[in-house]
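Researcher: Here's the sequence for the chain we discussed earlier.
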Amino acid sequence: MNIKQDLSTYKNVWVVAEHRQGILMPVVIELLGEGKKLANEIGVELCAILLGHKVDGLANELIEFGADKVYYANDKLLENYTTDGYTRVICEAVNSIKPEIVLVGATHIGRDLAPRLASKLNTGLTADCTKLEIDSEDKKIMQTRPAFGGNIMATIICPDTRPQMSTVRPGVMDKAVSDKTRKGDIIELKIDLNKDDIRTEVIEIVKTKKDLVSLTDADFIVSGGLGIKNAEGFKLLKQLADRLEGVVGASRAAVDAGWIDHSHQVGQTGTTVKPKVYIACGISGAIQHLAGMQSSDIIIAINNNESAPIFDVADYGIVGDVYEVIPRLIELLNDDKKLEDLFQKNRIIIEK
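Model: Thanks. This is the structure I predict for it:
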């Protein structure tokens, strides 16, 4: 039997502050920036919930980036993420304090945690949101996400239950701005968590090479698609990426071909990115790929097909062979020129 909630008792916007080895995940800073906008529109406070062991410094960092309050659970059993431990503590806090909105990063951990929270709390969850807005009339959150393979954008509301929950892809929202003068409240949660409450145990954390790929943090991304022709082509892209102090990305087609690891994939089924400059090399511009990179500040497309859809979103386009254009770009950059100096405001066309 479901008991109807009194929605008026729920207040404030919460951000789940995911961290790893004592470092906040970049998506948390993005969620704080977006959460602040939502909280201001509703007229409530922005709060963060932080779970861990001896990560007190992160609470101050959360306030620095916009949180008015930080609810902090400090326990050795929370040092490493576990589904059982984190779900229990956060659900108890939500049931007790009653936030109106809960935002979670759509990371590997967030995609595990958020559905479990929503199920335990008997509320709705909209996954992989790309846009969050407040309805001007009833102040509900309108959650927009790609649907049907990215061909349409669906806007979803949660009218009857609280909290309203969303996961947001890293790299989609603008990051909050640091203000070291900000003050806020750090409230320690009283928890009753035993080892028997957690069915799994983290024995060891092993980092692999693909853990070092940080597409969401990169200012410059050089991505390759089927036009690269083979795995060896990505070595050339890496030369350009290294020169720009950036990272290498890839389309799904290149990943499916086995040319590069999935951790480099940009797009709807990969990572959503928002770098200062995105260089698409031999990428046609399928809508699923565009969904993951079209918010980049500057998009440069290199393709030998002048009708490729990627040119429709590109700020600068080069029609030419990737294997001729990229070495020339590297050569020019090695002459101590900046990337922006190589391009004019109008599209560049290099005929074959």
